[in-house]
Amino acid sequence: MMDEEPLLRSFTTGGLGNRMTIKVAINGFGTIGKRVADAVDAQSDMEIVGVTKTRPSFGCDLAVRKGYPLYCTFNDKERIDAFAPAGYTCMGGLSDLLEQADVVVDCSPGKVGAANKEIYVNAGVKYIFQGGEKHAMAERSYTSSANHEQNLNAPGTRVVSCNTTGLSRTLVPLYDRCGSLKVECTMIRRAADPGDSAKGPINAIKPVLKVPSHHGPDVMTVKPEIQINSMAVAVPTTLMHCHSIVAFLPPGHGLTTESVLDLWRNQPRIIIMNGGETNITTTAEVMEYARDIGRKWGDLHEIFVWEDGVKLDGDTLYFFQAIHQESDVIPENVDAIRALMGTESDWRASVAQTDAAIATYNGI
Questions:
Q1: 105-109, 183-187, 311-315: which has the minimum mean pLDDT?
Q2: For residue range 149-189, what is the model confidence (pLDDT) as tens digits?
Q3: Active site residue 90
């Protein structure tokens, strides 16, 4: 493994008194990238120095409307020059963008992280990858509630996938309360994002025939003490994932169904509602709720738990939760930036700051 630390820049405080203004680059301005950019833009201690697109496209219009400087994902002059005939001002290539940044959030398609990491390390910037990359490539993984402190001042990390993030939000508090936890879960996965017309299945249920699926082992990259196995199936819906979870608590845990719910109610980024009382009994109605409360893009950053679907029977806990795959990792990226930059060591303080800024940005 190369020694990365000497290559990292020295970071200085910006225009917020004793606080640092963190300069953030977004490499990849798609489904996740555009959301991360807006979440970062909402923060008082961060600023967007640029976003990248591989070529002129409708996504460039959004960046221009937002006032985000536009760069090309590549350093090739021909690719950069192709933006001008389409009516866009491209400020340069990825290397030009990295010269302006303290940290880059990589939202490019999965499996290209290894090549990008070398670029980031050589540029001396900190880096954050998404869950489509392997833990071993980034050498660290991150969720706010599980391991914020372990990521403080690190050269880079990987924000785990939407499903792993969702599992962490409910399982980590249980582990912390009980001291041990064993979990079996089934992921009922959406087939594609709403804007993706190239994927299926269309009229089938497709099991993931590798057991365990990657989700359980991925939880253990951020909380290795949790013993978890997972299975997954893809179904023809685009709105959300749904988890069916069985958690085995240690003897003498002292919990009840209601105290488990109270435990989760005291955690950030978890919404608990009674399906029977609210008539929110499906993922379609959960997403309609997100639109009704005025969330930008109809996003739901929180994990949705059905209160009447939670049951503790002796030492065995059963529950369902829903995950909005396009947005639950967005605030985690913001918290990860603060962890890498060492500007906030308390994960709860970072979460509170992140969520308050996003809520204001969304007009909630």
A1: 105-109
A2: 999 999 999 999 999 999 999 999 999 999 999 999 999 99
A3: no
pLDDT at 16: 41
- 60/63 Cα distance (integer angstroms): 5
What homologous superfamily does CATH list for 5-160+329-361?
A: NAD(P)-binding Rossmann-like Domain (3.40.50.720)
**Catalytic residue (choose from 60, 107, 162, 185):** 162
Averaged pLDDT, 106-115: 85
Is residue 193 within 8 Å of 31, Cβ to Cβ? Answer: yes
Mean pLDDT estimate for the chain: 92
Q: List alpha helices for the chain, DSSP H.
A: 31-41, 58-66, 77-81, 94-98, 113-123, 135-138, 144-147, 162-178, 215-222, 257-265, 275-278, 283-292, 330-341, 347-361
Q: Which amino acid is at 316?
A: T
Is residue 331 within 8 A of residue 39, CB to CB? The reply is yes
Distance (Å) of CA 211 to CA 89, 134, 226, 243: 48, 17, 17, 16
What is the pairing mode between strands 46-53 and 70-72? parallel
Sign of CA dihedral 71, 72, 73, 74: negative
Write out pLDDT tens, residues 32-64: 999 999 999 999 999 999 999 999 988 899 999
Tell me the backbone φ, ψ of residue 87, rounded to 5 degrees: 95, 15
Residue 19 pLDDT: 58
**162-323 to CATH, choices 3.40.50.880, 3.30.360.10, 3.40.50.2300, 3.40.50.720:** 3.30.360.10
Among all chains, which residue has been given the structure tokens 């833990």? 135
Query: And the tokens for 266?
Result: 């005291």
